[in-house]
Specification:
Pfam families: adh_short. The chain is α/β, with parallel strands linked by helices. The protein has a single domain, classed as Rossmann fold, CATH 3.40.50.720. The longest helix has 29 residues.
């Protein structure tokens, strides 16, 4: 039986992943800061599905807490799936941002994601099986239309996931980056959500169901809102077309050197 470790599992996207994976028969390790919320979710899912569920109360922005979860991923041979979901947003304009909050965001959105994936990857690669699912964001593709730091953290997660897929895929490990659009979770205040047209806001259950469908279809990058996959394929093809000219001995002629 497979076991999945899910971060940020006390609500929203993480809780939805816990529900869906429990229904698929996964045993679970749920990680979040709130022990009480985790236990409530775990008790309900145990009763509904009968799967084994453990909880770890941990703030992944704190070095010692993160180290505990890393150790679990390295040492628990039953865990074959990691869902890197924990993250924060909401920093506001850079001209008035709190530098300490930005550091906290980078620690959680980038450092924790990287260290947790690094903790489990060697074991999965050695076994030739398993999966790493990283929650990123469509803002990774549109940084000029959002705040400055949050999209940058999500762009890291997207690039990291693509590189992981290229390295680990041939070893039998699935890597998926999930890029939600605006999703009704606690990361958004209801007042802010109400400012968007209703057709732009996806319910969390539908988002996770689409992400899992994308995983089942073998996608490395899943955007639940994107109607035509060919549009993103064209973007990737245009990006790849730049590769032959990204590094030359001489500067481009347009610089007149």
């Amino acid at each position: 039986m497979s076991k999945a470790l899910i971060t940020g599992a006390s609500g929203g996207i993480g809780e939805a992943y816990a529900q869906r994976l429990a229904r698929r028969g996964f045993d679970l390790v749920l990680v979040a800061r709130s022990a009480g919320k985790l236990e409530t979710i775990a008790a309900r899912l145990r009763a509904e599905t009968g799967v084994g569920i453990e909880t770890i109360a941990a703030d992944l922005g704190k070095v010692d807490n993160l180290a505990r979860v890393e150790a679990r991923l390295r040492e628990d041979a039953a865990i074959d799936t990691l869902v890197n979901n924990a993250g924060i947003a909401g920093e506001g304009p850079i001209t008035s941002a709190d530098p300490d909050y930005l550091s906290d965001m980078i620690d959680l959105n980038i450092v924790a994601v990287t260290r947790l994936a690094t903790a489990i990857a060697p074991r999965l690669a050695a076994n030739g099986t398993g999966a790493i699912v990283n929650l990123t964001s469509v803002t990774a593709l549109m940084p000029a239309h959002f705040t400055s730091v949050y999209p940058a953290t999500k762009a890291f997660v997207l690039a990291f996931s693509e590189a992981l897929a290229a390295e680990l895929g041939p070893k039998g490990v699935r890597v998926q980056a999930v890029l939600p659009g605006i999703t009704r979770t606690a990361i958004w205040e209801e007042e802010r959500l109400s400012q968007f047209p209703a057709e732009m806001v996806m319910e969390v259950g539908e988002m996770v169901d689409a992400a899992l469908a994308g995983f089942d279809q073998g996608e490395t990058i899943t955007m639940p809102s994107l109607p035509d996959k060919e549009d993103f394929d064209a973007f990737l093809s245009a990006r790849d077309a730049l590769r032959p000219n990204l590094s030359h001995r001489k500067a481009a002629a347009r610089y007149g050197l």
